Amino acid sequence: MVRGKVRRYSxxxxxxxxxxxxxxxxCVIQSPTVIDDPQLLTEGGSVEFQWQPLVNGKNDFRYYAxxxxxxxxxxxxxxxxxxxxxxxxxxxxxxxxxxxxDDTDPLRMRIQMDQLLFIxxxxxxxxxxxxxxxxxxxxxxxxAVPLYEASLTGGLDTDRxxxxxxxxxxxxxxxxxxxxxxxxxxxxxFSNDYASARDxxxxxxxxxxxxxxxxxxxxxxxAEPALGxxxxxxxxxxxxxxxxxxx
Length: 247
Hints:
Layout: E1 2-10, E2 15-19, E3 27-30, E4 46-53, E5 63-70, H1 90-99, H2 106-119, H3 124-137, H4 141-154, H5 158-174, H6 178-186, H7 192-208, H8 212-223, H9 231-246
Helix pairs in contact: 1-2, 2-3, 3-4, 3-5, 4-5, 5-6, 5-7, 6-7, 7-8, 8-9
């Protein structure tokens, strides 16, 4: 965490700017990353925040806040029934968090995520990936996209890079950036464990692009591991679909 001062913040617009020596030129705040009451983010107020480089930044801003709280106001979940067992590993705690995830209570989830990441020795890329996944889960894909991009820029382990790319492609699709979404899936060699998921999401994107035959062919590729003895037949039919499209 670093410290800075709020240059501006608008609760109506849902964004603002933090000034800090660690983020020269200003660091963009968006409402999903504000941990406590956004009304406390007043001009000149002191805040603690985590940040990542902003990919494809607009208006010359190069930094993006991934967590913001006013100084001295680090929250704890008011429900009191949720506690963190120090004997449980960070990954097991995170797994339990996702098992109990409830998108009807976003404030609680953001506070719990902040607590988990505060005590876990995760890399910056891993922490941003978890925050991206949370915003994605809560349905705010516009906030998830730059976080996914930042996590990939920061360097994830192979398994989570597979996850981040598929989830980024899904979020890009949901915000209407279909060609970008398809490119994310095509520019990476996915492991076998994620190949079917890649093909399934690619099929959805191609359908949205109006490429019906290619979408169906890609969907059949995604289903291949479950086809058993019928793999050869389905593969042949998929080739015929491709031929029909060319004609």
